[in-house]
Write a structure and sequence with these properties.
This protein is an alpha+beta fold. Helices cover 14% and strands 25% of the residues. It contains one helix and four strands, in the order H-E-E-E-E.
Length: 71
């Protein structure tokens, strides 16, 4: 993976979820993308990290982290 340039662009909810997980010290690791539209039906915005991603989860009506093996 290549780490995101100095500043990744995220919505405040993605940042909040990332920080709640422990930021770069967590299993998510460092960010590798800006926020973008997710192509999975029912999910809306997504940011990728070394160990997973954070996206909108309509089941909990909020942002949630996923490991890459989850879908």
């Amino acid at each position: 993976y290549s780490v995101c340039p100095e500043k990744c662009v995220w919505e405040s909810f993605v940042i909040h979820s990332y920080r709640n997980q422990g930021g770069s010290a967590s299993w998510l690791g460092f960010p590798i993308s800006d926020e973008y539209a997710d192509d999975v039906p029912g999910r809306y915005r997504r940011s990728d990290f070394e160990g997973g991603y954070i996206t909108w989860d309509p089941g909990i009506n909020g942002y949630r982290p996923f490991e890459y093996s989850e879908r």
